[in-house]
Amino acid sequence: MVDETSTTGAYRALSRPVPHRAVSWLAAGFGTISLAAFLDRERERLFLWSPVAFGLGIAVYFALPREPALPAILIVTAITGLAAVRRGTGRASGLVFSALFLAALGLTDASLRTLRVAAPVIEATTGTVPLTGRVTGVERREDGTARLLVAPERIGSLPAAELPRTLSLWQRGKWAVPAPGDTVAFRAVLLPPPDAAVPGGFDYARQAWFAGIGGVGFITAPPEPVAARVPAGRLARLSTDIERLRLTIAARIEEALPGSAGAIAAALITGERGTIPEADKEALRASGLAHILAISGLHMMLVVGTLFFVSRAAFALSPDLALGRPIKKWAALIALAGGTGYLVLSGASIATQRAYIMVAIMLVAVLLDRPAITLRNVALAALIVLVLRPEALATASFQMSFAATVGLVSTYEFLRMRASRRAEPVLPGWLRFAIRGVVGLALTALIAGLATGPFAVFHFNRVAIYGLAANVAAMPLVSMLVMPMGLAAACLMPFGLEGPALALMGMGIDGVLAVARTVSQWDGAVRVVPQAPIAALLTVVAGGLWLALWRGGVRLAGLPSVALGVAMMAQVDPPDIYVSRDARMAALDTGAGLVFLPRAGSDYVVETWQRTAGIPPDPSATPRPDCDDAACVAMRDDLRISYVRAPLAFEEDCGWADVVVTDLVPPQWCRDTALVIGPEEAAENGAMTLRRTQTGFTMDTSAAHTGLRPWARRGGSDR
Q1: In angstroms, rounded to a whole number, what is the distance separating the alpha carbons of residues 120 and 70?
Q2: Which pLDDT band holds residue 441 (cuts at 50, 70, 90)?
Q3: What is the DSSP string of 524-549?
Q4: For 586-598, how does the pLDDT look when each residue is reduced to its tens digit (9 = 90+)?
Q5: Closest CA to 341 of 249, 261, 418
Q6: Structure confidence at residue 231 as a pLDDT band (50, 70, 90)
Q7: At a CB cut-off of 8 Å and minimum separation 6, what does 270 contact?
Q8: Can you tell me the distance from the alpha carbon of 48 to that of 56, in angstroms, rounded to the nearest whole number?
Q9: Could you tell me where the DSSP H helices lie in 550-602?
């Protein structure tokens, strides 16, 4: 039996937000209240853990070494579901089975999604082949080149049943760029979507699988218009019309606002970011302002919030409407329609879809006379996103977006509870408003930065040291000038009156760029850190969720987990040697930088390896290997590596080097004296990293992380 009096008193102690009593909170939370009483007190918060359990099932799916059997998954789902119903949610065992059922549902959903998007994939690199297809998307670049999405109708002699759904092709020649909807013929070199450049790194092959991209490559001859073999369907024509509209709007914006301001304005309105100068992108990244370029929750909330406020204010000008009609709900409907239009106009990326779902839930809550911004609505939005696109769970966009949202909503919920217990300070209204604005802006930037920081470290290996200062300086411009004027320009563009609005938007963007360029030039503005293990991120996430989703002092039990995860991220031992997925490039970490053998190849691979090692990309500081016509060698202390380019080098280098990398077929006797990585090992393992130990080397491979999955093309893929 639980003493109700003592339990209630302990719960009140848990709910009392006094920071210096943190230890007594924890003692009360775990020592005085029974588990059943605790769960009863937190019952309304249990729903917040639903997307966590569902997402855990999705995470298990992607972590499996091979594709699970769907019948087995369905059986587990049915068993856990029946157990959850039988035990009910009134007991701890029932909650455990409910969590297991949700996890099984997540596993099932991810498996079904993989089957649903399955499509043919280019199996190996082709030579130059003739290709005919319909252009479905165009991404223009600053240098005049373009990335085309093409739905192929014919690829050389490839059977129709083996045609990929979509190809992503780089038009490197400065030829006329076809428009979305055009059917064109050209010649191209095709490749399978590449897997990770470093074990455990970003896996483009998996992303391409879920995006329906079955091959990548580059165009080698100017595209020529041809007649389509099969007319496009109604949905395809609608998609084409939207893409054409987006490109037209982007062109009009860039014509009215030349330079960086126009490119960024086009990105904020249409989602087209390809023409933004790389120097400005880097300045935004280094200053912690790169999130401005991604159309996500911030932009959607600013657009919808502006529409809601302006619409409601306009309706309120009429006393009859204000007093007799539900103008708040009318404004919510207008804002919802505007948000839908922004979703379509901006290209409906996954991040934008997620932001739209979250905003739509909040506006529907207004229509139903429910609180709009609550953790419950955030949890519901997360569930909807994960059900529709379970693969989003593994993306930095999903993780950072929801981390920031959960952190902000949870923090302000806590502050509202504290404020309700305190007397309002006696200050003039204007001063109170100004103080709240400044403090709120700084606090929002701080909380969002802390919430997303671990994910930025894990995915991008960099920390913007002065991100808080940059966001406090730049975000008022974005919130009060850039996005409202962008919305006004989009509304006025059909009438040809967008000029003044775009001019004001450009002024705001110039201000943001001035902040980014200034902050990025401060000493130590960016710190590059080695690749953190996934266990460190999961430890931070577990502690952060515990801290944000519970109420009362018990939530502080999440702090040690967060601290431990951060410590794990800070104590990383990067690999000693890197080998590319095709064994045509290797690198040795000398402590002063990476030595690339036989030379630095793909810019993307080089940058990825440097980020993994925690080395800022600086070509002038990159050490050089010792090369001749037959081989390139490098060494660090007692670790020696050779990249063999000619067979005659095997005899000498196999006896000298600890590791021999080559794209030739090495002699078998070489393996007796050195660790040899050749074409056979590369074909089986993909990208590899090596760490020197007292007994030899430990090897990590991309194939080990990917497993035997439909999107994998190594290690005996079962696609």
Answers
A1: 21
A2: confident
A3: T-EEE-PPPPHHHHHHHHHHHHHHHH
A4: 999 988 889 999 9
A5: 249
A6: confident
A7: 246, 247, 249, 250, 253, 345, 346, 347
A8: 14
A9: 558-570
Query: How much is the pLDDT for 719?
Result: 33
* Matching residue, tokens 């590369």: 682
CA 468 to each of CA 158, 213, 441, 483: distance values in angstroms, whole numbers, following the listed order: 54, 38, 10, 20
CA distance 681 to 671: 12
Q: How many residues does the chain have?
A: 719
Instruction: Please give the structure tokens belonging to residue 31.
Output: 């020592």
- In 653-707 the beta strands, taken as DSSP E runs, fall at 659-662, 675-677, 688-693, 696-701
Helix, strand or coil for residue 184?
strand
Taking a C-beta distance cutoff of 8 angstroms, is the pair 512, 542 a contact? Answer: no
pTM for this prediction: 0.88
Give the pLDDT confidence of 120-176 residue by residue, as tens digits.
999 988 989 999 999 999 998 888 889 999 999 999 999 999 999 999 999 988 889
Residues 537 and 400: their CA atoms lie apart, in Å, by: 12
> How many angstroms separate the CA atoms of 702 and 605, rounded?
14
Task: Work out whether strand 688-693 and strand 675-677 pair parallel, antiparallel, or are unpaired.
Answer: unpaired
Report the C-alpha gap between 39 and 53 in whole angstroms: 16
CA atoms of 139 and 626, how far apart (whole Å): 41
Contact 709, 66 (CB under 8 A): yes
Output the furthest CA–CA distance in the chain (Å, rounded): 94
Over residues 186-213, the mean pLDDT reads 94
Q: Residue 166: beta bridge partners?
A: 213
Range of lowest pLDDT (36-50, 469-483, 512-526): 36-50
| Residue 433, helix vs strand vs coil | helix
